[in-house]
């Protein structure tokens, strides 16, 4: 099938993007042409992209788990590597959702939710769930509410567990967290699109990158039901440190890695043995 004229990017757009260093210039040009309503708007959008503004901010959305997720300037752009976090959360949620004698929907907390992409993807995959998403950035909360509108999910503005209702304590099935994990001294090494345009609160994880992860893991057990799961995205290089953070929180932990997605996730399970302080055992990284 041939592309319609509106979808064929003018050569000048491709050339400008390529000259600005856009590796996938043809694909980006096609997206810009599709998003622009007028030639003047297209020119303005190309100018912003050539000036270094992330493509997702320019067109207003990012693709994630097959969904079109609304993003806005100042909101962390969901990455493909975070799809592994969704995959692993789906793996533990699906059996719960399938229990015929279960009356209440599985309860999920999405910490550092950003645009709400993880919660939206889980709802699209699992269906009926009681999702509670939290972010400290007001612009992210507004964005997440748009992406989770009509889903029944609740989105809160605040610091990690602080704004969550007390009625959730001990009732949560899964906590997912894409907390910032870039060491402070490494922020300067990030690509300009992230370093200059995305919020530092979504990137900077403190001296070793684990400051927020520690806080997530330390308080997670009090919110989770017995047998509940804590899933934290991390980097492959930091996986052993994040594993240690999760086990110190009282979880039996395992590390999951996907070369294809470029993602790494530590999955912790809260059970009676871990609560009793027995030493957790790691599953092999895969």
Description of the molecule:
The protein is α/β, with parallel strands linked by helices and 286 residues long. The protein has 2 domains: 5-51, no CATH class; 80-275, Vaccinia Virus protein VP39 (Rossmann fold, 3-Layer(aba) Sandwich). The protein is 36% helix and 19% strand. The chain is built from 11 helices and 9 strands. It has helices spanning 11-19, 25-35, 39-50, 55-59, 83-97, 117-126, 138-147, 192-197, 211-220, 239-248, 272-275; strands at residues 61-64, 67-70, 107-111, 130-135, 154-157, 172-177, 224-234, 252-258, 263-269. Helix 7 (138-147) links the parallel strand 4 (130-135) and strand 5 (154-157). Mean pLDDT is 90; it is low at 1-6 and 274-286.
Describe the secondary-structure layout.
Elements: H1 11-19, H2 25-35, H3 39-50, H4 55-59, E1 61-64, E2 67-70, H5 83-97, E3 107-111, H6 117-126, E4 130-135, H7 138-147, E5 154-157, E6 172-177, H8 192-197, H9 211-220, E7 224-234, H10 239-248, E8 252-258, E9 263-269, H11 272-275
Parallel strand pairs: 3-4, 3-6, 4-5, 6-7
Antiparallel strand pairs: 1-2, 7-9, 8-9
Helix pairs in contact: 1-2, 5-6, 9-10
């Amino acid at each position: 099938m041939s592309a319609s004229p509106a979808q064929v990017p003018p050569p000048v757009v491709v050339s400008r993007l390529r000259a600005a260093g856009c590796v996938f210039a043809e694909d980006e040009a096609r997206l810009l042409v599709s998003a622009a309503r007028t030639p003047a708007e297209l020119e303005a959008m190309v100018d912003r992209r050539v000036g270094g503004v992330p493509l997702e901010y320019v067109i207003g959305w990012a693709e994630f788990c097959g969904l079109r997720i609304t993003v806005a300037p100042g909101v962390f752009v969901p990455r493909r590597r975070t799809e592994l976090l969704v995959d692993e959360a789906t793996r533990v949620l699906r059996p719960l959702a399938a229990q015929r004698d279960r009356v209440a929907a599985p309860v999920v907390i999405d910490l550092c939710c950003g645009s709400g992409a993880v919660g939206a993807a889980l709802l699209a995959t699992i269906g009926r769930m009681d999702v509670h998403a939290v972010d400290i950035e007001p612009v992210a909360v507004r964005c997440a509410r748009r992406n989770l509108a009509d889903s029944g999910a609740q989105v809160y503005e605040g610091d990690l567990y602080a704004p969550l209702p007390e009625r959730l304590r001990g009732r949560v099935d899964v906590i997912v967290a894409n907390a910032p994990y870039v060491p402070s001294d490494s922020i300067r090494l990030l690509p300009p699109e992230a370093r200059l345009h995305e919020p530092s609160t979504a990137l900077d994880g403190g001296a070793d990158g684990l400051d927020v992860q520690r806080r997530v893991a330390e308080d997670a057990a009090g919110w989770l039901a017995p047998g509940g799961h804590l899933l934290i995205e991390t980097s492959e290089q930091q996986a052993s440190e994040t594993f240690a953070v999760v086990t110190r929180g009282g979880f039996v932990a395992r590390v999951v890695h996907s070369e294809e997605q470029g993602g790494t996730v530590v999955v912790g399970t809260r059970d009676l043995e871990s609560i009793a302080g027995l030493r957790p055992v790691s599953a092999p990284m895969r």
